[in-house]
Specification:
Length: 128
């Protein structure tokens, strides 16, 4: 399942964080379906030397494995198709579910708010 969707011929330097999270999630699903690939998971994790990125990859793997184990008992191919689409993308985003609330609510990717910060706004009773 994993090999057919992702393949194993990829370059560590070209792997983005998002692609690593998708691969780790898929590896977790495959592991729960009886097709564990610890060597491939280690290779994905080696692409990111930092502890933060490695922990996110581990969380995505755990989330994929958990979702596959929680799925109704069915054929492994059906569980795989339920959780991972044909292009290798998880059908549900693995990161928000895998990250603690404080980390998933970071605003770095959002565009800045226009106008003054709320701390500089006048209270309603001071406005005419």
């Amino acid at each position: 399942m994993y090999d057919r969707t992702f393949g194993t011929e990829w370059d560590n330097e070209a792997l983005t964080r998002e692609a690593a999270i998708d691969r780790a999630f898929a590896l977790g699903v495959a592991a729960a379906c009886g097709n564990e690939r610890p060597d491939e998971l280690e290779r994905v994790m080696e692409a990111f030397p930092g502890a933060y990125d490695r922990s996110i990859v581990e969380l995505a793997y755990d989330e994929g494995r958990t979702k596959a184990l929680e799925a109704p008992p069915d054929e492994p191919e059906a569980v795989w198709a339920t959780l991972v689409d044909g292009g290798g993308e998880p059908r549900a985003p693995p990161v928000p579910a895998a990250l603690p609330g404080a980390l998933s609510e970071l605003t770095l990717g959002r565009s800045p708010r226009t106008g003054p910060p709320s701390s500089l706004d006048l209270p309603a009773f001071l406005r005419k």
